[in-house]
Amino acid sequence: MIIIEPKIQQLLTEDALGTFPDECCGFLFGREETDGTRLIIDILTVDNSKEGDKRRRFEISPLDYMTAEQHALDHDWTLLGIYHSHPKHPAIPSEHDRIAAQPFFSYVIISVMSNDDVTFRSWLLNDEQQFEEEKITDNHFTLKKV
Fold first, then answer.
1. Which H or E run includes 136?
2. Which pLDDT belongs to residue 140?
3. In what order do the strands lie in the sheet with 38-46?
4. Rounded to an integer, what distance in angstroms lies between the CA atom of residue 71 and that of residue 136?
5. What is the tens place of the pLDDT at every residue in 25-37?
6. Fewer Cβ close by (within 10 Å): the C or N end of the chain?
7. Where on the phi/psi map is residue 38: left (φ > 0), alpha (ψ -120 to 50), or beta?
């Protein structure tokens, strides 16, 4: 499970809408709990460095990866994943997304159909190098009935 609180979801939405109709991209930072739950604490937006058509592909430069690693070290966080948008397409990873993916990272995809139709889904690679959906929640507190 991955926890993306409303303030982080808002930042992701703003980046996706701000780059529309191109794909946005960036990094996800936070911590992983002992039960495997991931809590996203911060994001780092980066420019889509893809040459040519950015409406269907994104690329993150090596310098941006190094900057993200340093950002994680500076804040004592873990670089937990990457996000990108799918303008006018569902939040389902493409074959290109799967081939470029790395183990351990969460891949949050933001589907932007319109200003009022934005959805999030998260994916992890399994041992067979296939994506499995990772449940997203926006609250890490469990309410107990009294």
1. strand 136-137
2. 56
3. 131-134, 117-125, 106-114, 78-87, 25-32, 38-46, 2-4, 136-137
4. 24
5. 999 999 999 999 9
6. C
7. beta
